[in-house]
Specification:
- By secondary structure, this protein is mainly alpha-helical.
- It contains 28 helices and 8 strands.
- It has a 4-stranded mixed β-sheet.
- α8 runs parallel beside α18, α10 packs antiparallel against α28 and α16 packs antiparallel against α17.
- It comes from Lysobacter yangpyeongensis.
- InterPro entries: Cyt_c_oxase-like_su1_sf, Cyt_C_Oxase_1, NorB_cytochrome_c-like.
- This is Nitric-oxide reductase large subunit.
- Keywords: Membrane, Transmembrane, Transmembrane helix.
- It holds the Pfam family COX1.
Length: 773
């Protein structure tokens, strides 16, 4: 059996087992999810909330932007508080103040001596952690004192999400527009949803076999974890890291070290085989550009337009953190509130990168096969129009939803779903899914002559490219797996299939296959070597990548088994990144292999940048927050976007730009490339991203982490903390990095613009086709 065949069988077995375990974990998550009660009542029988109130409240929360305005269970935006943690802290404080006035004649709990505080905390924890949910009747029963505290917190939220002058300063601190939820009944329903998320975070779930991993100590009552595994950190109610979080965090480090050792052993015993003779000229220089390949140019123009708009919206979103409802004196919140600018910013980050890769797929398929199917150009143009309609339509619906101009009945289908990175309405998700199936069809029919033809050296890599294309098209279907009233724990499970597996998984395989095929076509790498390398890299990546999805789900109502699996396999995600330097060096050598490779110098350099940010952004900053104990304190703090920005743009954005430049070499290769602008773009992107991370996200996230450990999560996300002068200064420190980064984006656009508007043809005798000035 050939080595390639063994790798194919190994990959198939790995994916079958991994997805089998991932699906099993999903059934456990669905089973252990915190219950949504039919009624919430007081001890006297008074109905406080109903299931209908909670579900309607979630609809209201989604319509106003959902995770794009504050967060729930740590998932979402970073300026406004985490509503689950904020409600929990406010409710606990209200109860303690109530008891301090009734029992000790003190105005507030904070005025009590230490021993009384400790006594009341013990009493509070017993009351709030006790699970009073009756599964037979679907009823949660609350103590009278807790009902009073609940009503006080609800009144605060009804004021905050309205237009009450009493909470105006908080709205400004949270970057909320006035009358975020103008309807009074909707505001009351919103409080029901927020209360339920806080209830799940502080209520102990029923003990199950395997929950207790240590023998019970005589005379000591075991403390069971809450539905959210004791998240968030809240000293008042006894929320602290559970024992399994410590255990599996330690094991994740061991798995990481073992994985790196095994990969090091493999690397030491294998060597790349150089081709017998390098081509004297560029094999792709005379590539025949088909009509459909030429039609992909408009995709790359859209990429640049979406990229520029995303940067502008990112600057506006960051500035809201400083001035609240205004930007440089202009009251933008009445037109483009924070929740909509952040929605569009995060969504465009995925969209422009995805369009870059979609365009690359449509370009590379006919280039590999030499086959132009009938009506291929029409399909490419039609898909481009569909993508524009989806972007404009979904963004318009989200704006109308956030501005409360769309009723709740239409919001799920045409407005704002409220789930970060999966915000567009269900109609637009279906439209995009069908568009991806069309893309899959277009790429597949162009590759078909290679796939069905006789055995060839490149057939295995082309097959992997096609399979990744199939997965990109089909796995977006994970966004269609939940409904309007699906339990939030189940939604989170499927949402991370979309964000983690679709964006971080199969796009990675697609990119690796495309880059390998490019180097093979250039004659720089043996086909056999490239095939083995791509298959092995896919196996290594997927070994941790599939089950590593679970590290996003530690605190959304999941059992301990999910924590164990997520911690173990998310550590393995970092293993291939540990040797990313070898990949970068190998790529650099290919870029210097022959004189004519100077034509591909800048695409190669962008690919080397991908390797660097893979190691730093995805590797170092990713593992920083992946272990359960780390994420317990860091989730939803600025250390999360530190990983997000450096990994999403540093890896996938840089890779998208590299692929676009490779395609432009074919589309405009007969023109001289004045690469001064590319040089500016390359260094501005890397320096600007580094400044953004070092000057703002890393120091601010570290300060929040210390605050969360010492004072609890609610304080680290509170207006009191986030409005401190040093925080304002750190936010302003983003301006230099953002400015440098923006110059890079403008330079890239100027380079592409000149290729079409003011091109200079190469001399007849040829040449490098690249000028450095």
């Amino acid at each position: 059996m050939s080595n390639t065949r063994k790798l194919w069988l190994g990959l198939a077995a790995l994916l079958i087992v991994s997805f089998g375990v991932l699906l099993w974990a999903g059934t456990e998550i669905f089973r252990a999810a915190p219950p949504v009660p039919e009624r919430v009542v007081s001890e006297s029988g008074q109905v406080i909330y109903t299931r209908a109130d909670i579900e309607r409240g979630r609809q209201v929360w989604q319509s106003m932007g959902g995770m794009q305005l504050g967060s729930i269970w740590g998932h979402g935006a970073y300026v406004a508080p985490d509503w689950s943690a904020d409600w929990l802290h406010r409710e606990a404080t209200n109860v303690l103040d109530l008891w301090a006035r009734a029992d000790d004649a003190m105005a507030t709990y904070a005025q009590l001596p230490a021993e009384r505080k400790a006594a009341l905390q013990g009493r509070l924890q017993e009351m709030m952690r006790r699970n009073t949910y009756d599964a037979a009747t679907g009823t949660i029963t609350l103590d009278a004192d807790r009902v009073v505290a609940l009503s006080n917190v609800a009144a605060h939220y009804e004021s905050l999400f309205g237009n009450d002058p009493a909470t105006q300063s908080l709205r400004e601190a949270y970057a909320m527009k006035n009358d975020t939820v103008p309807d009074v009944d909707n505001r009351r329903a919103l409080t029901a949803f927020f209360w339920w998320t806080a209830w799940a975070a502080t209520t102990e779930r029923p003990r199950e076999p395997g929950d207790a991993m240590v023998p019970t100590q005589s005379g000591v009552v075991d403390q069971q974890v809450t539905y959210t595994n004791n998240w968030p950190s809240e000293p008042l109610v006894g929320n602290r890291p559970a024992a399994p979080l410590w255990l599996w965090s330690a094991f994740s480090v061991l798995f990481l070290i073992a994985g790196i050792a095994l990969l090091g052993w493999h690397h030491a015993r294998t060597h790349d085989e150089a081709p017998a003779q390098l081509p004297k000229t560029d094999p792709l220089a005379m590539l025949r550009i088909t009509p459909s390949m030429r039609a992909t140019a408009k995709y790359f123009w859209v990429v640049l337009a979406l990229f520029l708009v995303q940067i502008l919206l990112g600057a506006m979103t960051a500035h809201y953190q400083v001035e609240g409802q205004v930007a440089y004196g202009f009251n933008l919140s009445n037109v483009l509130p924070y929740s909509i600018t952040r929605t569009w910013h995060t969504q465009l980050a995925v969209l422009w990168i995805a369009v870059a890769w979609l365009g690359t797929g449509l370009y590379i398929a006919p280039a590999l096969s030499g086959h132009e199917p009938k009506f291929q150009r029409l399909g490419v143009n039609f898909l481009w129009v569909c993508l524009l309609v989806i972007v404009v339509g979904s963004f318009a619906g989200q704006w109308m939803a956030v501005m409360q101009k769309m009723g709740l009945d239409l919001n799920f289908w045409f407005g704002h779903q409220g789930w970060e990175y999966a915000d567009m309405g269900r109609f637009w998700q279906w439209f995009l899914f069908i568009g991806l199936l069309l893309w899959l069809t277009l790429v597949g029919r162009a590759l078909w002559p290679v796939l069905r033809g006789p055995q060839s050296d490149t057939k295995a890599i082309v097959g992997l490219l096609f399979l990744s294309t199939v997965c990109i098209g089909l796995f977006f279907g994970a966004a269609l797996m939940w409904g309007e009233h699906t339990h939030i724990s189940e939604v989170e499970y499927w949402r991370w299939w979309l964000v983690h597996l679709w964006v971080e998984g199969f796009f990675e395989v697609f990119a690796a296959a495309v880059m390998s095929l490019i180097f093979v076509k250039l004659g720089l790498v043996n086909t056999k070597t490239a095939t083995t390398a791509v298959l092995f890299a896919t196996i290594v990546f997927m070994a941790g990548g599939v089950l590593g999805t679970l590290h996003h789900l530690y605190f959304v109502g999941t059992p301990t088994a999910v924590v164990a699996l997520g911690a173990s396999f998310s550590a393995l995600e970092v293993v291939p990144l540990a040797y990313i330097g070898f990949e970068a060096y190998h790529t650099y050598k290919l870029g210097k292999a022959t004189p004519w490779m100077t034509r591909y110098r800048w695409p190669i350099l962008f690919f080397i940048a991908v390797s660097f940010w893979n190691l730093v952004g995805a590797g170092l900053f990713g593992f920083l927050i992946n272990p359960p104990l780390s994420l317990y304190y860091m989730q939803g703090l600025n250390l999360t976007p530190l990983h997000g920005h450096t990994a999403l743009f540093g890896v996938y954005g840089m890779l998208g730009i590299a692929l676009v430049l490779f395609c432009l070499r074919g589309l405009r290769g007969q023109m001289q490339w004045d690469t001064k602008a590319l040089k500016v773009a390359f260094w501005c992107f890397n320096i600007g991203l580094g400044m953004m991370a070092a000057f703002t996200l890393l120091p601010l996230g570290t300060m929040q982490l210390l605050a969360a450990i010492e004072h609890g999560y609610a304080y680290a996300r509170s207006a009191e903390f986030m409005q401190k002068p040093i925080v304002d200064m750190l936010v302003w420190m983003r301006v230099p990095g953002d400015t440098v980064f923006s110059v890079g984006a403008l330079a890239l656009c100027w380079f592409v613009f000149r290729l079409w508007v003011a091109p200079r043809r190469l001399p007849v005798e040829g040449g490098a086709g690249e000028l450095e000035r």
